[in-house]
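Notes from hallway chat w/ T.B., transcribed later so I don't forget. T.B. wanted the structure written out for a chain they're using in a teaching module, and asked if we could keep both sequence and structure tokens in one place. Agreed to drop them here.
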Amino acid sequence: MIDPSLLGRASHFDFGKNWSSYARLVTDAHVEEAVRALRHLSGDDLRNRSFLDIGCGSGLHALAALRLGAREVLGVDLDADSVATAQEVLRTRAPGAPWRIENVSVFDLPGRCPGLFDVVYSWGVLHHTGDMYGALRAASTLVAPQGRFIFALYRRTRLCWLWKREKRWYATATPAAQARARAIYVWLFRSALALAKRRTLGQHKDQYTQRRGMDFTHDVHDWLGGWPYESITPAQTEQFMNQLGFSRVRAVTRDRVELGLLGSGCDEYVYARR
């Protein structure tokens, strides 16, 4: 049952303010890693392809698409702070390039976009819309024939019910309460690393940046506050995308349902319109 109150900006966590803070840390190395990650998912470059980034956040992946040769890039986000941040990043790092950033909800896109796109991209966004399946459906209508739909969604864990409650609380908690929650989470995370004897928290942060082009501290805030929140299994994703007329090209998933004591990661998908 969809709660209509979750579809609007007012009920959502302030993702945009977090992205604005993160954007001040972006270096050339972050951009290069974003380019590498996007190339890995897309399978090749994006030369002469149109690219739609739904939930563009900091604008980093819209920039990566331009670096990979996209002929036009449209980035959209529900959060006005994200829109302003993405515009500033692209004005600074891609002046004169063929891009636009607009303040639009994914649910309004089918009636607002002037056409279809060769690549529709949405990494870690559609599960925060308040209607994940509706968001997938709306985004899929914008994929051109034989185009690609690239997205990432939270994988289902046994403790998703707990994280849903935590996120709803965190999204409206005071800054002081949020800071305490982050401190507790990082302490638990550090303890888990120590028990596993794999690496220190510092090493994890370095590898995290190198692997994703992101920042661990900002992503902890994003994870704890990511409301609305939904998750999905790879099998459920496959079934739904087949119903929408798409075939899987590739996926990076974990099929086993995990406990999710420290949260859930994202499964990554690439589907082609049949």
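Follow-up for T.B.: The first strand starts at residue 50 and ends at 54. Might be a good example for the class.
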